[in-house]
Each structure stands twice: as structure tokens, then as C-alpha cells.
Amino acid sequence: MRRFILSLDQGTTSSRAVLFDTAGSIIASSQYEFTQHYPAPGWVEHDPDDIWTSQYRAMVDVLIDADVKAGEVIAIGIANQRETTVVWDGKTGRAVHPAIVWQCRRTAPLCEELIREGLLPHVAETTGLRIDAYFSATKLRYILDNIENGQARAEIGELMFGTVDSFLIYKLCGEHLTDYSNASRTMLFDIRRLDYDDLLLKRLSIPRAILPKPLPSSAIYGTVGGNIEGLEALYGVPISGAAGDQQAALFGQACFYAGQAKCTYGTGSFLMMNTGGDAIRSENELLTTIAWGIDGRVDYALEGSIFNAGSSIKWLRDELKLISSSHEIDELAESVPDTKGCYFVSAFTGLGAPHWDMYARGALLGLTRDVGRPHLCRAVLEGIAYQVCELARTMERDCRFPLSALKVDGGASVSNLMMQFQADLLNLPVNRPRCVESTALGAALLAGLGVGFYKDLNELARLWQSERIFMPAMSELERQSRLKGWEKAVERAKLWQID
Predict the structure, then answer these.
(1) How many whole angstroms from its chain centre is CA 91?
(2) pLDDT score recorded for residue 499
(3) What is the pLDDT of residues 356-381, one digit of tens each?
(4) Is the separation of the CB atoms in 167 and 159 below 8 Å?
(5) Which span out of 111-125, 282-296, 423-437 was modeled with the highest average pLDDT?
(6) CB-CB contact of 99 with 47 (8 Å)
């Protein structure tokens, strides 16, 4: 009998289902984009029904495409956009408010209150995070304050909160659960005690009754119920792996040991380094987060976040109409040797690490009359690489040793121009795997471990294969000149303030 592992990769702009064989090869995949809602400047929402419907359709597609029979899928893994906050009715399963997306800045004023109250040190020490509108805690408080009887309904256990992993687990299994990695992104979770923090719950008036139970990232979360039309081949199949998308990508890149790092180029861009069992507290505004929990052991990571990366490419396509497809940006960018000296800072929803400026906004600087469409396309790609370089140097200061190489993945990592420029800026080899769908693969591997199909991490490491290594080719003089220009551009973007 054939044996497969199904991975659900629920992202910020699309939902994907990827069917893997047990050797880690993709057998079938399907993807559906869904609508992004921007009800006010700096606000971002999703319709939870769109999230579920797009994920469901992708699942049905791969089951049909691969002609999957009952019993052939041995496990399901989930990777998800993190921090995005969903609240639903525990009886009906229907969301009671639009999902507030991780990019959304509407709760910045509440974050400022918490900072003024002196909670920054406690949040950093307990959760490994900063106080920022990025995380789920203040989003949840906002939802409870903006639905009828929200607080009362939460206290009696009528409402359920979760990040998107929890929402999908509930839809498929009827269980209210999350994994350690996603819990660690709520700004409510003690990453050492592996439990929600009483002081933060009290300050934000969040009852424990609304919170999902946290489990290891490789564990049995439940089995698919027998009442979902179109998913008959999955009835009784366990969901046995779950992780936030960036942690799943770190796992899929076989960065199993301390010091190994990857960068994912998706809607946002995220640089993450495994620090093993040591939850290193950053001295340079990076995040300390849970990488995963497996077999009674928790591994931690340092992370830097860029809020807008691939979304900048979508902006060129959907709002400016300068390109008709994501692939076209590379063709245009490669048609010119440089950006004519212009820089693009993609701070559409503020700047993440190491700046943590909730009010910074996007900026295009250094324009001259001879800057055209190809130069702008190149500036967008280079702008992503500049931000990753800044994160890498910050991470090296925290760890006190240099990176020796960087593994890359995600949709935008297919850009050869951007990966070469990344290697040039870092002055390091950039290693792109044969399977750039590291997020989906990581969720699948966690699920395979959860049901005991894979024995250990050494077995999984042998599945990873490199597709191309980009070697640096830029002079030190040019590198430093470009980086100085970038630093000036970022400072200009940070000058913007909303009245």
C-alpha cells in the first residue's frame, strides 16, 4: 500500500495542501489565495471562513489528484501563519469576529500602555518576546472588547481563541489545542514553564477558559472526524504534527542542532537560528521563541522578523500593476545592472527586529528621473535582502559567533537574483534546498515523527538535499557602500509618524 503524509500549509495570503511520500518528495499540491482585508490604515484582517474554505479546497484537490484511498495517508501535519488571532463559538464553530492578522497594527496604543506600565522586562523574560501589536495577546483583547458580551462569553467557556493551527484542528477534529511553538507567539506563554503566564492573563483580563491547551509539536492532536464531505479518505487519520510556519521551515531545513539557521522568504521574511535547549535572551531586540517540542525536550530559537517581503512583490502586482505575475519581477530586475541608487523599505505595517517601530511606513528613496519599472522591481528584491542581512548581523552579535552559511526557502527564494544579492551582502554561501517548500515539509516530518514512522532526527536529516549554493561575489568596498545607503533609507522610513 502507498503511504503518504499530508501537510497543511496555511499562510497569510494563501492556503496550501501538499501530499508527501515518506521519502519527503512532493506527490501532489494545491494552493488557493484568499482575500486580504484592509479596513483602515495599518489594519489587516482575514475572513476565517475564507481560511477554512481555501484550506479545505486544497485538501480535496490533492486527494483527488493523487487518487488517495482510505488508509494511504498515515498522518497530517499543520503549519500556519503565526500570531493571527481567531475567536470562534465553541458550539457552532463559527468565528465571531474577523481574524486579526499578525501584520495588523491596530492594537499599538494598548501595547504602548503596557510599555508605560513597565511590563517590557517581564514580557521579555517570560515570553521571549517584545510588547508589540505583532503578537496575539492584544489582538485577543481587542476582539473581546469589540463583540457583544465578549468578556462574559469568554469567562464561561463559550468562546475559543486560537492561532490558525488551533482553528484548523478544531475544524477537523473538534479539539481545542495548539503546539508549544504557536503558544510561544501569543505574548501570554511562559516559554520555560510551558504554561500561560498568570500575570499577563490578569493584566489583559484573558480567562484561561478561552485558551487552547498547548502540546508538543510532534504529538497526537486528534483524528479527522467522519462528517466532512470530500475528506472521506482522511477519516480517522491523526493530526500528529503542528508548528508555526517559521518553526516548521526550520525543521524542514534540517536545522536540528544549535547554531544552524535558515531564512524563509514568504509574505514576511524570517531569519531563525536553532539555539538548542538554551533560551538565549537577545541583547539586540531579537525574539527568543520555542522552536519545537519533541519527545519531552524543548528546543529554542532566536528569530528576527521582517513584516513585508513577498507581500511587497504582491503590492507591485496587485496595487501598482507593474508586473502581471510574481515571476515577472525577476525578469525585469535582471534587465538592469542596479537600482540607479534607489532603495525600497517595505515598512507597510511597521518595522520588526531590530527596530520594532510600529509607526514606520514604507519608503522609496533616492529616485531620479531615469529610474524606471525594472529599477523599482530590483529595489524591491534588494530591499528584502538588505533587511535579512541586518537581521543576520544582529543575530551574530547575540550569539557571539558568525554564521557560516544560510539555508533559504519560501516562495520568493526561487529568485536567483535576490539569492545572489543575499549572498553578496552577507558575504556567506546561501544554500537553497531541492524542496523549497520547507514549511510544508517540516510539518509533514513532525507528523511522521508523531506517529512513529520516522525513528529520529538523524533519519530525517538524510532526507534533506541541496539544489544550489550561491557564493558571494561582491567586493567589500561595494558591500559597505550599499549597506550605508540602506541604513540611511531605513532612518528616513522611521521618521514617518501617524497623527
Answers:
(1) 29
(2) 47
(3) 787 888 889 989 999 999 999 999 99
(4) no
(5) 111-125
(6) yes
The half-sphere exposure of 74 on its side-chain side, counting CA atoms within 13 A, is 19
pTM, to two decimals: 0.84
Q: Which of 182, 389, 184, 399 is nearest to 274 (CA)?
A: 399
In contact, 376 and 328? CB cutoff 8 Å: no
Contacts of 209 (CB under 8 A, 6+ apart): 154, 155, 156, 157
Residue 244 has a CB neighbour count (10 Å cut-off) of: 34
C-alpha 160/C-alpha 167 separation (Å) is 9
Least trusted range by pLDDT, from 1-5, 217-221, 391-395: 391-395
For the residues of 375-435, what is the DSSP string, one character each?
Answer: HHHHHHHHHHHHHHHHHHHHHHHHHTS----EEEESGGGG-HHHHHHHHHHHTS-EEEES-
- Which set of grid coordinates corresponds to residue 336? 538592469
For residue 285, CA distances in Å to 351, 397, 399, 449, 488 come to: 12, 11, 13, 33, 20
Check pLDDT > 70 for residue 497: no
Please give the span between the terminal C-alpha atoms of the chain, in angstroms, as a whole number.
63
Residue 308 to residue 381: CA distance in whole angstroms: 11
For residue 90 the three cell numbers come to 465553541
pLDDT per residue over 223-255, tens digit each?
999 788 899 999 999 999 999 999 999 999 999
For residues 413-419, give the mean pLDDT: 91
Question: Could you read off the pLDDT of 252-275 as tens digits, one per residue?
Answer: 999 998 888 899 888 888 899 898
Alpha helices in 299-372 (DSSP H): 310-314, 326-334
Q: Between 480 and 356, where is the model more confident?
A: 480
The per-residue pLDDT for 131 is: 93
CB neighbour list of residue 278: distance below 8 Å, 6 or more residues apart: 258, 300
Q: Give dist(CA 426, CA 127) in Å, integer.
A: 30
What are the CA-CA distances from residue 196 to residues 15, 145, 418 (Å)?
Answer: 29, 21, 40
Q: What is the per-residue DSSP string for 152-201?
A: HHHHTT-EEEE-HHHHHHHHHH---EEEHHHHTTSS-EETTTTEE-HHHH
Whole-angstrom distance, CA of residue 212 vs CA of residue 209: 8
Q: 457-466: per-residue pLDDT in tens?
A: 989 988 888 9
User: How many Å apart are CA 457 and CA 434, to the nearest integer?
Assistant: 19
| C-alpha cell recorded at residue 24 | 519527503
Task: Give the C-alpha separation, 290 to 310, whole Å.
Answer: 24
- Give the three-class secondary structure for 275: strand
Q: In which region does residue 295 sit, left (phi positive, over 0), alpha (psi from -120 to 50) or beta (all else)?
A: left
Q: When comparing pLDDT for 431 and 326, which is higher? A: 431
Residue 90, SS3 per DSSP: coil
Sort residue 136 into left (φ over 0), alpha (ψ -120 to 50) or beta.
Answer: alpha
CA atoms of 249 and 243, how far apart (whole Å): 9
